Amino acid sequence: MGDKQLGPDDEFRAFIVGAWPWLLRTAYLLTGDQHAAEDLAQSAAERTCAAWSKVRRADDPHSYVRRIMINQHARRWRRRAPEVLVESVPDTAGREDGYARSDQRRVLMAALATLPPRQRQAVVLRHWDDLTDSQAAAAMGCSTGAVRSHAAKGIARLRHTAGLKELTDMTHVGGAV
Questions:
Q1: Rounded distance, CA 118 to CA 112, Å?
Q2: What mean pLDDT, rounded, does the chain reach?
Q3: How far, in Å, CA of 33 to CA of 38, rounded?
Q4: At CA 106, angle to CA 104 and CA 107, rounded to 5?
Q5: Residue 114 pLDDT > 50, yes or no?
Q6: Lesser CB count within 10 Å: N end or C end of the chain?
Q7: What pTM value is reported for the model?
């Protein structure tokens, strides 16, 4: 008589109440911000509710929910505004310093040459040719997600290239090069 079976709503509620501390902690580690973590955890809980019939039948519901949260976080990250390598482009219109521009170009070309082919393609198409993700994907014959991934990895590698790092540091500290 005391064994009352829980309905789907009660099962979901019990699962989320028990998983909430873990969900929130994982969301915080992904986002690095308490408010963003709360939003992400809430969003993951909403998606879990919508897919509860699948989640409750899964071998490991926590893994299923973790995947939901990772996908939600990835979607939010993709929608964020792109980062800018340098805050402003040096104004060289008033003076003609061909040697400085030549050195900058040489450093940039050497850094680009260190990138794997797909990363270099994505960086060039997206940032020099100013193509959209879908235009670059059509040009590269891959998905827009692959373009985003290759471009992000390429930019990250370029940021850590010694010559470019010195070049961007000089433009921030001493103004135009």
A1: 11
A2: 76
A3: 9
A4: 65
A5: yes
A6: N
A7: 0.45
User: DSSP class of residue 3?
Assistant: -
Distance CA 69, CA 96 (A): 52
pLDDT at 74 over 60: yes
CATH number 3.40.50 is the correct assignment for the domain at 8-79: no
Angle between helical axes of 61-79 and 8-31 (0-180°, round to 10): 50
Sorted by sequence, the CB contacts under 8 Å of residue 177 that are 6+ apart come out as 90, 100, 104, 167, 170, 171
State the Cα–Cα distance between residues 55 and 45, nearest whole angstrom. 11
Contacts for 108 with CB less than 8 Å, ≥ 6 apart = 164, 167
Q: List the one residue out of 78, 20, 8, 14 whose CA is nearest residue 50.
A: 8
* Ordered DSSP codes for 59-106: S-HHHHHHHHHHHHHHHHHHHSPPP-SSSS----SSS--HHHHHHHHH
Token digits of residue 93: 């219109």
Residue 88: its pLDDT value, please?
47
Which tokens hold the place of 70? Answer: 């990772």
Question: What value does the mean pLDDT take over residues 91-119?
Answer: 69
- Domain 101-173 top-level CATH class: mainly alpha
Domain residue limits, the chain: 8-79, 101-173
